[in-house]
Automatic annotation (TrEMBL):
<keyword id="KW-0812">Transmembrane</keyword>
<protein>
    <submittedName>
        <fullName>ABC transporter ATP-binding protein</fullName>
    </submittedName>
</protein>
<feature type="domain" description="ABC transporter">
    <location>
        <begin position="374"/>
        <end position="608"/>
    </location>
</feature>
<dbReference type="Pfam" id="PF00664">
    <property type="entry name" value="ABC_membrane"/>
</dbReference>
<dbReference type="InterPro" id="IPR027417">
    <property type="entry name" value="P-loop_NTPase"/>
</dbReference>
<dbReference type="InterPro" id="IPR003593">
    <property type="entry name" value="AAA+_ATPase"/>
</dbReference>
<feature type="transmembrane region" description="Helical">
    <location>
        <begin position="293"/>
        <end position="318"/>
    </location>
</feature>
<feature type="transmembrane region" description="Helical">
    <location>
        <begin position="59"/>
        <end position="82"/>
    </location>
</feature>
<feature type="transmembrane region" description="Helical">
    <location>
        <begin position="94"/>
        <end position="114"/>
    </location>
</feature>
<keyword id="KW-0547">Nucleotide-binding</keyword>
<dbReference type="InterPro" id="IPR039421">
    <property type="entry name" value="Type_1_exporter"/>
</dbReference>
<keyword id="KW-0067">ATP-binding</keyword>
<dbReference type="Pfam" id="PF00005">
    <property type="entry name" value="ABC_tran"/>
</dbReference>
<dbReference type="InterPro" id="IPR011527">
    <property type="entry name" value="ABC1_TM_dom"/>
</dbReference>
<feature type="transmembrane region" description="Helical">
    <location>
        <begin position="180"/>
        <end position="205"/>
    </location>
</feature>
<keyword id="KW-0472">Membrane</keyword>
<keyword id="KW-1133">Transmembrane helix</keyword>
Length: 613
């Protein structure tokens, strides 16, 4: 029997039994049944990423086979030695045997180390690609998607969930596989050595299985809950940090801290229970393990006295019993990590499955030169189905005209310009640029002919030069300075330490609100679009900066079709056409003089009875 087992080729044959062993079946049974379908799909998609490194993955699997095989061979050799040397049957000299044993353990460690290093490399590349896909996809998602989600929650998917996938791929996944392999190998060798002792050793398995099932059923739910709570907490942190000024202005610090405390407490609670219950697994395994040692030694001793087995076999069984409970232990421990990683991957794939907006309608083509004629014909739009925000809007803007959009708050001014840039899509009606329905124009191409100067124009972390160049990365330094001069931004930039190379912190930290506006105007001038969308600032800016902004805007608007959400009578008066919106309807349109000449909302607004916004 020893001879047959010494043949290393014996082990691969044993793998065929893998699916049939109680341990393997038990492992499968532990998969959460409720989500089995999704989980399979998620694993399949992870495999899609892993499969790019098939060559290296095969090497890892080879190393897993080698290290698992060697970890079975070591105890087996010790058993042989005990029977041959201690019972005086002689054989290979001691030193040679010790050297062989040392070689088995050293090779096992080297194989384990190699498997680790290669797997880490595969895991890092996999996560790198997933992260890249996720980021790329996020930037292709339409605006309505972001309106529905908290930014922090999305950040959590990008960071926490990706981290989970990463750490699991680094170690847990391969450990689960290697544990399963060792388990199967152990069962087969035990079966060959002594079926009776094997049955006795496995008497503890149903107990282990029931214990693990009980625990993982509870921890699986708790880990998911913790992950969800963590995502929500991140969302809350992001939100309160973004709105920090408002929090302070309304003295809401204590409320915010209180709310944070509650959310934090929910994570503490779910984390506490998840970790505590899952931490019970090793203790349970240890206790049952010791029980199985006692059974092996007791019954094995009796069998040895009767000559049914040798002492060496008992030693091998004790070693194997340790070896089979350790992978079971690992399986149980790593299982939770695996669960939370698959849940994390699922959340990442959920975003990847959101339909992006890069898929332009069939037949959509780019638009090369734009003159700037814009028309809306009977445009109806709703954010929420059944609740119309814009109700049958029709107007025309000739190239180079300035269109002021006015109306009370919530009238639909912002919605109207969101449709023009295709951030949202109209329910019905037609919007055309230079006579072409914008649905027949590729989105990116359409937007490349537009520029936006909004109240909260965002500036990125980077130098002033980089921020101005944002819409035209190929612009020369001279062009940047020229645009800044036209925007009236040059003089303040020149006075800053570092000038154009001054690094702005996130969203223009370190410069004033008015200066941010001037930079946004310079950025739009450099981008040189045919169509402009301006949201006139309502916040109070000092008179000197205000005049500079007005001048900058005038230069920017020259020769371009401009849509201005206007609040100042001066701007409105100068417009070629004024659109007066209320409750999503276009009540009046015409020039200042035309509208003033007839009774209506506009004349009431001008006479000061109604606010402009
Ligand atoms: N993302 C959204 N989802 C659902 N409803 C929205 C969304 N954005 C705006 N609305 C609603 O659509 C209506 C028009 O909003 P819009 O922002 O276009 O008004 P506005 O005229 O620009 O207002 P303001 O002058 O206050 O900026 C409002 O009733 C608003 O509550």
């Amino acid at each position: 029997m020893w001879k047959a087992l010494s043949d290393p080729l014996h082990y691969p044959r044993s793998q065929a039994l893998a699916e049939r062993t109680p341990a393997a079946q038990e492992t499968q049974a532990k998969r959460p049944k409720r989500k089995a379908k999704n989980w399979q799909a998620t694993l399949k998609r992870i495999w899609g990423y892993l499969a790019r490194r098939k060559g290296m993955l095969s090497l890892v699997l080879l190393m897993v086979l080698v290290s698992s095989g060697l970890s079975l061979l070591g105890p087996y050799m010790i058993g042989v030695a005990i029977d041959r040397y201690l019972e005086g049957s002689g054989g290979t000299p001691w030193l040679l045997f010790l050297a062989a044993l040392a070689a088995v353990y050293i090779l096992g460690s080297v194989a384990g180390w190699l498997q680790n290093v290669w797997m880490i490399s595969i895991a890092q590349e996999t996560v790198y690609r997933m992260r890249l896909d996720l980021f790329r996809h996020l930037h292709r998602l339409p605006i309505p998607f972001f309106a529905k989600r908290q930014r922090g929650e999305l950040m959590s998917r990008m960071t926490n969930d990706m981290d989970n996938v990463s750490s699991t791929l680094n170690s847990s996944a391969i450990q689960v596989f290697s544990s399963a392999l060792i388990l199967v190998g152990t069962v087969i060798v035990m079966l060959i050595l002594s079926p009776l002792l094997m049955v006795l050793t496995f008497l503890v398995v149903p107990l282990m299985s029931a214990g693990m099932k009980w625990i993982t059923r509870r921890t699986g739910v708790l880990f998911q809950e913790r992950q969800r709570n963590l995502g929500e907490l991140n969302g809350y942190i992001e939100e309160t940090l973004s709105g920090q000024r408002i929090v302070k202005a309304f003295s809401q610090e204590e409320t915010v801290i209180g709310e944070f405390g509650e959310r934090n407490d929910r994570i503490r609670l779910s984390g506490f229970w998840a970790q505590t219950i899952s931490g019970f697994i090793p203790k349970l395994m240890n206790g049952l393990n010791n029980l199985s040692y006692a059974v092996i030694v007791g019954v094995g001793g009796l069998l040895a006295i009767r000559g049914a087995i040798t002492v060496g076999v008992i030693v091998v069984f004790v070693e194997y019993a340790r070896q089979f409970t350790r992978p079971l232990n690992d399986l149980a421990n790593q299982w939770n990590t695996l669960l939370s990683a698959i849940a994390g991957a699922e959340r990442v794939f959920e975003i990847l499955d959101e339909e992006d907006e890069t898929k332009d309608e069939g037949g959509a083509r780019p638009i090369r030169a734009v003159r700037g004629a814009v028309s809306f014909s009977d445009v109806i739009f709703s954010y929420v189905p059944g609740e119309q925000t814009l109700k049958g809007i029709s107007f025309e803007a000739k190239p180079g005209e300035t269109i002021a959009i006015i109306g009370p708050t919530g009238a639909g001014k912002t919605s109207l310009i969101q449709l023009l840039s295709r951030f949202y899509e109209a329910d019905s009606g037609t919007i055309a640029v230079d006579g072409r329905d914008i649905r027949t124009i590729e989105r990116a191409s359409l937007r490349s002919h537009m520029a936006f100067v909004l109240q909260d124009s965002f500036l990125f972390e980077g130098t002033i030069r980089e921020n101005i160049r944002y819409g035209k990365p190929e612009a020369s330094d001279e062009e940047v300075v020229r645009a800044a001069e036209l925007a009236n931004a040059h003089s303040f930039i020149a006075r800053l330490p570092g000038g154009y190379d001054k690094v702005l912190q996130g969203d223009g930290g370190g410069i004033s609100q008015g200066q941010k506006q001037l930079l946004a105007i310079a950025r739009a001038i450099l981008a040189d679009p045919a169509i402009l969308v301006l949201d006139e600032a309502t916040s109070s800016i000092d008179t000197v900066t205000e005049i500079k902004i007005q001048e900058g805007l005038q230069r920017l608007m020259e020769g371009r079709t401009s849509f201005v959400i206007a609040h100042r009578l001066n701007t409105i008066r100068r417009a070629d056409r004024i659109l007066v919106l209320k409750d999503g309807r276009l009540l009046e349109q015409g020039s200042h003089e035309e509208l003033l000449a007839r009774p209506g909302l506009y004349s009431e607004m001008v006479r000061g009875h109604v606010q402009f916004s």
